Amino acid sequence: MPRTALRICPLCEATCGLALTIDGTEVTAARGDRDDVFSHGFICPKGASFGAVDSDPDRLRAPLVRKDGELREAGWEEAFDAVAAGLRAVADRHGPHAVGVVLGNPNVHTVAGGLYPPVLLAALGTRSLFTASTVDQMPKHVSSGLLFGDANAIPVPDLDRTDHLLLIGANPLESNGSLCTAPDFPGRLKALRARGGTLTVVDPRRTRTAKLADRHVAIRPGTDALLLAAMVHVLYEEDLVDLGDLAPHVLGVDEVRASVRDFTPEAVAAVCDVEAGVTRALARELAAAPTAAVYGRIGSCTVPHGTLASWLVDVLNILTGNLDRPGGALFPQAATDRTPRPAGPGRGFALGRWASRVGGHPEAKGELPLSALAEEIDTATGPGTGTPVRALITIAANPVLSAPDGDRLDKALDSLDFMVSVDPYLGETSRHADVVLPPPPPAQSPHHDFAFNTLAVRNQVRYTRPAVPLEPGRMAETEILARLTLAATGRHGTDPATVDAMVIEQTLGKSVRDPHSPVHGRDPGDLAARLTGENGPERRLDLMLRLGPYGDGFGARPDGLTLERLLAHPHGIDLGPLRPRLPQPLKTRSGKVELLPEPIAGDLPRLRQALAERPAGLVLVGRRHLRSNNSWMHNIPALTGGSNRCTLHVHPDDAGRLGVSAAQPVRVQGPGGEVTVPAEITDSVRPGVVSLPHGWGHDRPGTRQTHAATEPGVNVNQLLDGSLLDPLSGNAVLNGVPVKLVPLPATTTAAAAAPVPSP
Ligand SMILES: Nc1nc2c(c(=O)[nH]1)N[C@H]1C(S)=C(S)[C@@H](COP(=O)(O)OP(=O)(O)OC[C@H]3O[C@@H](n4cnc5c(=O)[nH]c(N)nc54)[C@H](O)[C@@H]3O)O[C@H]1N2
Ligand SMILES: Nc1nc2c(c(=O)[nH]1)N[C@H]1C(S)=C(S)[C@@H](COP(=O)(O)OP(=O)(O)OC[C@H]3O[C@@H](n4cnc5c(=O)[nH]c(N)nc54)[C@H](O)[C@@H]3O)O[C@H]1N2
Ligand code: SF4
Ligand SMILES: [Mo]
C-alpha cells in the first residue's frame, strides 16, 4: 500500500513542503503539502521530480576508493581508513593549512551541512577554506558585516506587505529566490501587484520576472553600483532622505551625502545606459512609496563592484526609512538562532585578518576566494608564507564547473597528494578524489533549514524525519561528516556520536555561564540528559531550539519550542510575520548601523573611476532555468530538454552585425579561454549582451552522469581566468565579462571546431 510522507524540498532556497507518495522504499509521486505553514501547497517542476532526483540510477551506492589509479567500490571502514591515512599524512608533514576544504551549495540544503562543517573546520584548524559563497553572495555578507557588525545579518524584503519592490539582478521566476526564502515567490510578486503595489526590475535581460514588472530597466551589466549611487545622490539632492524611526540607530548619514556627490544621474547615464530621468524616477518612487524594499541578488553580487552594490541596496533601504519596518526589509528571527543578547556595542566585523598565500587575497568571513583555489594548489611560491594545499576535502561542491577556469583546477586537483569528496555523484570534481563518500538520497535524509530560516520572509520552523529508512549499506550524511571529522583529526575509529556529545557539552557549558541565557547557572549534565531525539543530530536540533529565541529554555518558558513540540506539528509551526528588531541585531563596535564603513569609503574611488569607462564590445551574463539547478541536475531526464539548454542568447542586432544565425555554432572567447556553443537569437537580452547558463560542460572523462553526458553543453566558467574579483569580498566576477564572438560554419560541432582568427 502506498503511503504518504512529508519532506521539505532541498532543491532550492524556497524550502517548499512536499507530500511524497511512497511505495515500499520508492518515491512514486511528489505534490505540494497544502497544510505546510509556509508553502501552502506550492511546488515547482524540480520538486515534482523529487522521485526521479531521489532514484537516479547514477547515484553512488557505496564508497569509492582509488586503488592502482582506479576508483573501486569499497566498504565504509576501508574508505575511512584511507581518509585518515591520506589526510593525516599531509597535515603531519605540511601543517594544518595544507589541508584545504571546499564547501559547496547543497551544504545549505542538508542537516549534515548545517551541523558538521563548523566542527570539522575547528578541528582541522585550516585557513584554506573555500566555499560557494565567493562565487555567489560574499559581497552581501561583507556589506552586512560592515554595516551591522554581523556578516549573517541580512535584511530580507517583506514581500507580502511591501508597497514597492525594487529587484536588482534577480530572476525569482526561474530561481525561486535567493537570500530571500519565499515559497511561491512568483505568486507573492503577483499578489504585490494585485494589491496595488509596484514592481521594478533592473536586469540586462527581459526575464520572466521583468515581464511581470511595472518597470524594467535593462541596465548595462556590471554597472548597478553606479545606478544605485546615483539614486542615493538624488535622495540627498531632492531632500528625500527620511530615516524615520531608524535615525537614532544610524551613524554616518552626512558622510554618505559627501561620498556620492560625484554620482549624479547624468554622470552615470552613459555607463549604465540608463537615462538620468529614469534614475531620478527610481529614487523618487522609492522615497514616495508608503513602504518599499530594495533587493539585489546574483546580478548585483557577481560583478566588479559587488560589495558596493550590496552596500548601496541597504543604504537605499536605510535612507528611505525602510530598514527594519514592516513592508520594508527586515531581519528574520529563526528558531535555531542563538538567544538574542541585549543590544549594545559588539565586536564588529573584521576583514582581511589573513590573506591568501599566492594572490594575497584578504579573507572574508574566514574564507578565501574559490577563484584562488587552483593557484593555492598549483603554485609553489607566493608572497605569503606556508605551503601549497596538498590535500583537499570537498563536500557537496563541484568547483570544476562552478568556479572560474575549471581546466586549470582540473589539473591542479590531479596533482594533490590526497583528495576526499562527499558527493552522491562521480562528477567533474569528485572524479579526482582518492575516496568518494556518497550520502544517501534525499528521501533517506532528515531535513531542517538552518540557513534559510534566517533568510525567510516569514518566521516559521519545520523539521521532517527521513521519509524512507536508510537502505542497507548506506550511511547517513550526518554520520559521514562526523566520521570524516574524526578521521581528519587523528581520532579515527572513535564512536561518531562523540562528535555530537562534544558539541552539546561545549554549548551547554557556555550557556550556563552566560548571564543572558535562559539556562544560566544550571547544571549542564542535567540539561544534556533532558535532550530528546533519536540520534545525535536530532539532540543537537533539540538543543538549538530550546536555547533559541522561541525555545522552552529547558523549562524556563514552559510553552516554548522543543523538538518534541515540533515533531507534533508535521506541517511546521508558524512564528509570525517579520518584526522590527533593531537595535538588537547590531554587533558593530558603536552599537549603531555604521553607514559609511572605512573599507567601503576606501573602495569608492574605484567606482568613481568606473564613471569614465565605456566598454565597447559584447559582455557576457548568465541565466538560470527553472528546471535546472547549478551543475548537478542535468542528469534527470524529466528536468532536461525543451528550453533548458546550453545555448548562447544573442540579440538580433548583434546577430545581424556579426552574421550569426539561429542555431549556428559560435565560438565565445573570454579572458580565460573559449567555448563553442549554438546561438539562440532572442531580444530577451539587451543589445551588447550575450547570455550563457552555468553548470554545463559534462563531457569530461571519468564522470558517471550518463544522461547529462548525452547533452553535455559547455562550461561558461572556462571563459574566465579567475583574476577578476570584487576586491573587498573576493567574490568572482561572473557577469559583465567582456567576450568576443566568432561565428563558425553551421556544420561545426563543438569538439571539431578548429581555431580561427578573431574578427
Ligand atoms: N558562471 C556562473 N557560475 C556560477 C554561478 C553563476 O550564476 N554563473 N552561480 C554560482 C552559485 S550562486 C553557486 S551557489 C555555485 C554552486 O556551485 P557548487 O557549490 O559547486 O554547487 P553545485 O554546482 O550545485 O554542485 C553541488 C555538488 O554537490 C553534490 N550534491 C548534491 N546533493 C548533495 C547532498 O545531498 N550531499 C552532498 N554531500 N552533495 C550533494 C552534487 O552532486 C554536486 O557535485 O555555482 C556558482 N557558479
Ligand atoms: N532553477 C534554478 N533555481 C536556482 C538555481 C538554479 O541554478 N536553477 N540556483 C540557486 C542558487 S545557488 C542561487 S544563488 C539563486 C540565484 O538566484 P537569482 O539571483 O534570482 O539568480 P538568476 O536567475 O541567475 O538571476 C540573476 C539575474 O541577474 C541578471 N544580471 C546579470 N548581470 C547583471 C548585472 O550586472 N546587473 C543586473 N541588474 N542584473 C544582472 C541576469 O540576467 C539574471 O536574470 O538561485 C537558486 N535557485
Ligand atoms: S520551488 Fe524550490 S523548494 Fe519549492 S518545489 Fe521547487 S525546487 Fe523545491
Ligand atoms: Mo548560489
From TrEMBL:
Annotated SUPFAM superfamilies: ADC-like (SSF50692), Formate dehydrogenase/DMSO reductase, domains 1-3 (SSF53706)
Mention one GO molecular function: oxidoreductase activity
Q: Recite the UniProt keywords alphabetically.
A: 4Fe-4S, Iron, Iron-sulfur, Metal-binding, Oxidoreductase
Q: Which InterPro entries match?
A: Asp_de-COase-like_dom_sf (IPR009010), MoPterin_dinucl-bd_dom (IPR006657), Mopterin_OxRdtase (IPR006656), Mopterin_OxRdtase_4Fe-4S_dom (IPR006963), Prok_molybdopt-oxidoreductase (IPR050123)
Query: Do the record's keywords include Iron?
Result: yes
One GO CC annotation, please?
membrane
Pfam families from the xrefs?
Molybdop_Fe4S4, Molybdopterin, Molydop_binding
Q: Does the keyword Secreted apply?
A: no
Protein's name in the database: Molybdopterin-binding oxidoreductase
Species assigned in the record: Streptomyces parvulus
